[in-house]
Amino acid sequence: MPDDRVVDAARLNALLRPRHPDVEVAHVDVLGAHEGSASRLRLAVQYAPGRDAGLPTTMFLKRNLARFEFPAEMYSTEVRLYRDLLPAMAIEHPAVYAIEADRDELVFTIVMEDIGGRPGARLGIATTPATPDEVASLLRTLASMHAAWWGGNRLDREAPWLTDPVANAPMRFWREIGPRLSHRHLESGHRAELVDADRWPEASLWPAFDRLCAANAEGPPTLLHGDVHAGNVYYVAGGDGGLLDWQLMLRGSWALDVTYILITALTTEDRRAHESALLREYLDRLGERAPGWDEAWRRYRQNVLYGVAMWLITPNGVHDDDVQDVNLVRCLAAGEDLETLGALQT
């Protein structure tokens, strides 16, 4: 596969024609570009007359970074999700127009629906809080997905490459770099003043993270998105919500996904007022698979730490400072309300 970083009409035609042989792209403009853990482009597309093959005039392109310093599994996992798993998953998701990947699935390009251009859809962002009804729409999606993969048998057959939180390469990477990055951000910078060192002692954070990973590897596993924060979702008027950015997908406890969206998408006040009802609604949708309330509440309390850890270590520049701060403040408040570190004590 060519390692071509130019996205023009010829390149887009080459990407689209395996699935849409009649398309003829005449011109492409890059409307926006962002590089974090991958390269993301929003494209405006012009077609030759009568040659749009039913495709839209804007698209979203995601591809590998030219230089990637994170676990390689973050790329291969997402390629396999969009190519092999998502087409058979009965959940809301963006339309996928093209997938190209090398043999190792580390050099890749995915062309998909521009959700920001879909009527009635809204991309999530922490600085625009979701309503409880919007979060409920995401929990319906998560319950449907989790139920379909519950217990591990299907995972063993169809996604044997997914690992649990103890063995998972990104989780191990976060654990390796986490103490250094969290110390840096607790010492200085815009996040330092947000954290009460007495309530969140550095010496306790990462041993507690180890216990969280071990806890999330126990019990019936399911397929997890792994990164369901407020900025990796979208809301659909009158329908269930959708999930984006699957690079951290893994297998493990349902509570990691459910907790992360509850504590980042809602304001602290709305989370306090609605978390119990929303969690009960999710469990009801699991039906007979659902754990008892006491066990579910314990798992929920524990998994708040994942959000705290992730927003402490996220490098500056990956998200705007105000987004980082809002997410971290919400996670810290939830951890203090729910006594998360206490819930993770041995």
Distance N to C terminus? 50 Å
Classified by CATH, the class of the largest domain is Alpha Beta
Helix-and-strand structural type: alpha+beta
Q: Got a strand count?
A: 10
Q: How many structural domains are formed by the residues?
A: 2
CATH architecture of the largest domain: Alpha-Beta Complex
Summary of the model, kept short:
By secondary structure, the protein is α+β, with helices and mostly antiparallel strands. 43% of the residues lie in helices and 15% in strands.
Name a few traits of the molecule:
single chain; 346 residues; alpha+beta; Phosphorylase Kinase, domain 1; Aminoglycoside 3'-phosphotransferase, Chain: A, domain 2; 2 domains; three-stranded antiparallel beta sheet; 11 helices; 43% helix
Describe the overall structure.
The chain is α+β, with helices and mostly antiparallel strands. It has two domains: 9-115, Phosphorylase Kinase, domain 1 (2-Layer Sandwich); 121-343, Aminoglycoside 3'-phosphotransferase, Chain: A, domain 2, CATH 3.90.1200. The chain contains eleven helices and ten strands. The chain has a five-stranded antiparallel β-sheet. A hairpin with a 3-residue loop joins β1 (25-35) and β2 (39-47). α7 (255-265) crosses α9. The longest helix has 21 residues, at 293-313. The protein is globular and about 65 Å long. The mean pLDDT is 95.
